[in-house]
């Protein structure tokens, strides 16, 4: 192709481009030209019509198109409608790039914007939020969000002040007609970070006068920021997130607020945006339930898969739960009652019409007898998981359940002998129809003396992948049967055994299943039988190992540290016998992410190099080991970007240890409780510390600190949880300490005779800080 053909092709493409461009202009009612005025500002001009009222309705879709070219020549006789400057209240990335780029980077000085709404008005709003009208309709609101999205609004404090003004002024205070879903859609379209999304949500909760906290994507709604909440209520095994309503007073507020259709729609959008599919209602103050005709609108939101009710123990809870049963969605997958009083008739009514996949009945320390009827065929067939703790179910129910169930996960915790006997007797009728479906089995016994027949029944669960047995008595009678069963589980990956007593043959034949990858072996009381295992020849596939209260032979002890596939090791309160001098050796696995060693027998570790190979460690716990100063300085430099949690309680530290610690760049939790600092103070970290921005939790309880240490602690910019000893500090000066403006939990001891303590705690409560008294 010659140069003439290239030129023709170039002109054809340009003609096609401008034809499409003019068609777009005709299709849209508003066209604006803009041009760069040096490197200071951008001038906007209207091209094809006079300014119209912004409240004119238009199509549902707010359309905006921007292009840079020289098609429209500068025309200073036209009316200028807006001047954009670098310091505009709301900044736009596209305009900022255009205004600051040189001619070599941006060859055009002009451009056009076509849209189907009055852009000039929105541009003026971006400069002065006082221009926002008292009432906005959905179309106007959509146009504003469209401009923020298409021109890429700069994410900063000003932007969210602007959004806050829109929501409070127009959504809540005036017309209550805006489509709140668009706010969340806009936030998602910009791919803004979680913190910015939380700012949008905080506007809504502040209006409702409720406090809220986010934890790992879960939303916690509180009466006030100092209220205590339990993070253990969240299920970490599911892909979706949870909403925790922390007390009944908060529930009352939400119950009334959600009667407003727009606020209900807001919650629906919020649930969708945050992927909330679970609601946890926690009566943490165990308040009396007031009689009211509850409608439970929150529980009816589409997509809710799980409901958890916790600590409804008062008699008044019964009426509350009776009303709740009428509002449980038919497509609910998970129902949990924990530490809750629920009468059998209410529970029966709930269960007989449902098709749950998971049922959790956990009554804490109070055993409850459920004489459940046999009319649960539909439920039995749908259940995939049961979790019964301190619940007494009779023999007939268990028989019916095992004959009809299609369950794959069983968790049972017994608290009385009768309940245990009923289960074991019914379990003896296996193989039941779905026994091959069970992959997870966990049982905690009340009476540790269990019949050998139980293990015969257990052997029928051929496809078991996880087996956890706790609080059983090892005897010669059950020993051979137990380990014969374990050997025959060909796909078993996880084995947890927590036992009383011992057997002479117990450890020798324990490991006969090389498929096991996760092993937890624990003696409830200290063992007197020596643990002998050939790890390297038979169990090199282990990736997770937990040993607690075990007496282990030295050869097996050494082999543990030579397992190359190990990623997690916990070794707590164990004894190595007999003690034989060995050559120095190191931890062979380079993939360890969790290492917990809690042992005051330093002689067991004097020949082991634990720290130099920890290249990928994320959680390191060497507490209660009475380690000498300088030990931590041996930690591998390769873990500076991986270590998130360091626990080093009751050890000694010197300057070398602090200097090594200071090089950790991603540390989030640091526990130095009870540590002895040798000729240094905690503030010596200041010179080297690289985790000033990442640290969220600090525990220096029982560590002697001074005001200089406290000043240094103020440098941790994102610290949220602080535990320390106040002795030797100026308590009155501490009231104005900057660190207290950032944390949400402060833990220390209490001296009720010291007025300084009382005043300090009052000050902390006023600032909304959760105070934990040690």
TrEMBL record:
**What residues form the membrane-spanning segments?**
7-26
Q: Which UniProt keywords apply?
A: Membrane, Transmembrane, Transmembrane helix
Source domain of life is Eukaryota
This chain belongs to which protein, by name?
A: Leucine-rich repeat-containing protein
Give the source species. Answer: Hamiltosporidium tvaerminnensis
The beginning of the lineage is: Eukaryota, Fungi, Fungi incertae sedis, Microsporidia, Dubosqiidae
């Amino acid at each position: 192709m010659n140069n003439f053909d290239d030129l023709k092709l170039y002109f054809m493409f340009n003609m096609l481009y401008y034809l499409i461009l003019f068609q777009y202009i005709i299709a849209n009612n508003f066209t604006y030209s803009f041009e760069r005025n040096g490197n200071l500002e951008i001038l906007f001009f209207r091209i094809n019509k006079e300014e119209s009222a912004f409240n004119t309705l238009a199509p549902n879709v707010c359309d905006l198109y921007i292009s840079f070219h020289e098609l429209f020549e500068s025309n200073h006789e036209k009316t200028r409608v807006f001047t954009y400057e670098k310091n505009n209240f709301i900044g736009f990335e596209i305009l900022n790039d255009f205004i600051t780029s040189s001619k070599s980077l941006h060859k055009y000085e002009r451009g056009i914007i076509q849209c189907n709404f009055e852009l000039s008005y929105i541009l003026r709003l971006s400069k002065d939020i006082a221009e926002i009208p008292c009432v906005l309709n959905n179309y106007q609101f959509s146009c504003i969000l469209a401009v923020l999205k298409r021109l890429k609004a700069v994410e900063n404090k000003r932007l969210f002040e602007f959004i806050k003004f829109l929501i409070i002024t127009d959504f809540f205070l005036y017309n209550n007609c805006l489509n709140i879903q668009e706010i969340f859609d806009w936030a998602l379209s910009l791919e803004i970070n979680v913190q910015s999304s939380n700012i949008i949500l905080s506007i809504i909760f502040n209006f409702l006068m409720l406090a809220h906290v986010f934890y790992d994507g879960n939303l916690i709604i509180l009466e006030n920021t100092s209220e205590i909440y339990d993070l253990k209520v969240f299920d970490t095994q599911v892909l979706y997130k949870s909403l925790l309503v922390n007390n009944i007073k908060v529930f009352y507020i939400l119950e009334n607020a959600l009667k407003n259709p727009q606020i209900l729609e807001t919650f629906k959008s919020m649930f969708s945006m945050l992927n909330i599919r679970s609601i946890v209602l926690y009566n943490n103050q165990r308040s009396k339930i007031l009689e009211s005709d509850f409608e439970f609108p929150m529980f009816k939101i589409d997509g809710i898969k799980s409901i958890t009710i916790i600590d409804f123990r008062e008699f008044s809870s019964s009426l509350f739960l009776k009303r709740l049963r009428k509002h449980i969605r038919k497509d609910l997958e998970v129902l949990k009652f924990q530490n809750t009083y629920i009468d059998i008739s209410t529970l029966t009514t709930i269960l007989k019409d449902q098709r749950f996949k998971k049922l959790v009945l956990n009554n804490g320390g109070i055993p409850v007898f459920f004489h459940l009827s046999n009319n649960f065929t539909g439920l039995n067939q749908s259940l995939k998981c049961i979790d019964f703790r301190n619940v007494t179910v009779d023999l007939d129910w268990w028989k019916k359940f095992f004959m009809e169930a299609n369950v794959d996960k069983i968790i049972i915790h017994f608290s009385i002998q009768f309940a245990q006997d009923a289960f074991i007797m019914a379990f003896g009728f296996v193989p039941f129809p779905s026994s091959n479906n069970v992959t997870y089995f966990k049982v905690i016994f009340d009476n540790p003396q269990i019949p050998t027949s139980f293990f015969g029944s257990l052997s029928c669960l051929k496809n078991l992948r996880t087996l956890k047995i706790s609080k059983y008595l090892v005897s010669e009678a059950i020993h051979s049967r137990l380990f014969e069963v374990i050997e025959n589980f060909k796909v078993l990956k996880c084995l947890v055994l927590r036992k009383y007593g011992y057997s002479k043959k117990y450890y020798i034949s324990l490991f006969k299943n090389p498929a096991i990858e996760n092993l937890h072996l624990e003696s409830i009381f200290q063992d007197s039988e020596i643990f002998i295992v050939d790890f390297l020849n038979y169990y090199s596939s282990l990736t997770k190992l937990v040993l607690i209260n075990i007496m282990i032979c030295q050869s097996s002890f050494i082999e543990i540290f030579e397992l190359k596939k190990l990623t997690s090791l916990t070794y707590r309160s164990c004894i190595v016998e007999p003690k034989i001098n060995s050559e120095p050796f190191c931890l062979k696995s380079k993939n360890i992410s969790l290492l917990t060693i809690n042992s005051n027998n330093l002689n067991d570790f004097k020949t082991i190099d634990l720290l130099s190979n920890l290249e990928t460690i994320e959680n390191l716990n060497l507490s209660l080991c009475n380690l000498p100063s300088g030990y931590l300085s041996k930690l591998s430099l390769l873990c500076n970007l991986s270590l998130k949690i360091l626990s080093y309680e009751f050890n000694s530290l010197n300057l070398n240890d602090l200097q090594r610690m200071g090089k950790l760049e991603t540390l989030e939790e640091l526990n130095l409780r009870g540590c002895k600092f040798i000729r240094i103070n905690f503030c010596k970290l200041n010179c080297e510390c690289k985790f000033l921005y990442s640290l969220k939790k600090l525990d220096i309880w029982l560590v002697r600190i001074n005001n200089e240490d406290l000043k240094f602690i103020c440098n941790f910019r994102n610290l949220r949880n602080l535990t320390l000893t106040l002795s030797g500090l100026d308590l009155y000066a501490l009231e104005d300490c900057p660190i207290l403006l950032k944390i949400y939990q402060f833990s220390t001891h209490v001296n009720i005779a010291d007025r300084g303590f009382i005043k300090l705690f009052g000050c902390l409560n006023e600032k909304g800080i959760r105070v934990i008294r040690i």
